[in-house]
Amino acid sequence: MFIAYQNQGGIEYARLAESYRENGKIKKRLGDNLGRVLDKKRGIYQSRARGVFTFDLASNTYGAPPPDFGVAVRRKNGKEKLLVDFGDAFLVDALFEKFGLHVAINAIGYGNQDSVRALLMYYILEKRSNNHALTWFEGSYARFLYPKANLSSQSISRMLAAIGEEGTMRAFFKEYLKLLGEHVRDAANILIDSTGLPNSIRFPLTAVSNHNGEISEEVRLIYVVQQGSRLPIYMRYVPGNVVDNSTLITTMKELKAIGVNTKFAILDAGYVTEEVIEHLLDGHISFITRCPTNRTIYKKALAAALPTLEVAENLAVDEAGRLFNNRQVYVKCVSLPWGEPDSQGDARQIYAYVGKDKAMQEQERKHAVSRITHNGSRLDKQRLHDLVQEGGVFVLLSSRKIRADLILSHYYIRQEIEQVFDISKNYASLLPLNVESEAAFRGHLLMTFISTVLLQMLQSEIRNSDFSLDRILMSMRTLKAKVFTSSVRSTSYLVSSSAKSTS
Questions:
Q1: Which H/E stretch holds residue 313?
Q2: Can you tell me the distance from the alpha carbon of 150 to that of 161, in angstroms, rounded to the nearest whole number?
Q3: Top-confidence range, 168-177, 208-217, 234-243, 482-491
Q4: Hey, is 492 helix, strand or coil?
Q5: Neighbours of 77 (CB within 10 A)
Q6: Which whole number is the average pLDDT over 320-339?
Q7: What is the DSSP letter of 322?
């Protein structure tokens, strides 16, 4: 057996052949057609039936091409019809499958799944309003991944309104929680915080908010995040004029309703009220939260701990015996009664961790001196003394006793949720809001939630590398693909042989 070669129109083709003798004459019998010769020396060929493959004549076997082989596109009169952004769309589509999000996305149940995935990809890869989605789609490899997608402005508005229906959102979260695993549903360690979404959209959710002294028209978005993985578990939204402490109990009840039983919660200071703490204690939910300075328990904690706080035994160090984050911080735990005593005269206990950050104290001391003495008036020595003494002081409340030198690392995990909000706003198109109805607003929030989940999963994958989200997405976008009549090929390697150009 041997390989016979034939040149047609400047392109070399090959097929198997065999010589045999008949009536004293040598004849040739043709065998399988190997197709186009891509690399004669390495035995690499291409045919419609097999695609790109290798053939070894000695063993008469077919195989896959070597990983380092790239197809060079050479066609008679072969002109590319289009050049599209390829790498970023290819990456996001692959991550949908890698992380298992496709199952939860499919649970949304919208009639055109291509439209849902294409819009999700747009939310992740672009920072512009949805009015530009169709233009992006036409210049992206997404048009070949999701050929049935319709990203016209009218279609997107209808899709967001449909996705925002309550039943649709419940179906998504049901499948999404399965993806997170039983340990999240049965004993979740969670972080809860809210962020404002400034907008001027005229629907009932928009209201004037006074949050930490900042006045704005906004909607409040509440995220529940899994401690450690930083993955969002759940979301809620409330009008901008609803204060944080009135939303926590409802949030906890909704978590329980969807099957998430919380074991430990780290809360923002805005949630601290007697009613909230009572609810957490009654529900046997352990918690840590920063105590606002205007609470009675704050003053009690300072009175009990501040006089003897700055001693060596209260200096916070990490597990290796080093200063916590290289900062000189003293922490002391005091136990304080909470609520009314029971019939035996015993009251529940809550643990207050009084801390003083010396670097922060120095900053606040300079500010206090400047503020009190700036007009040259007579010095109020007692006032200055009190301000300096309480400079850099904070109080953390907990339902259980934790080693004082570890309370800081537990509490500052709360910064993880700030990073999640950062991804939502800066990478997942949460802002600016550009919707016309409350239904579409809910759909928009779900799309940003899913986008945030995927980006946070990617962030976790690269956490110990030298890469960032910006760098990865920008680098992948530089990979383009050439579109021919019946194939789409990356400028660096073969990506598809079945996609068809619509141009």
A1: none
A2: 15
A3: 168-177
A4: coil
A5: 5
A6: 88
A7: P
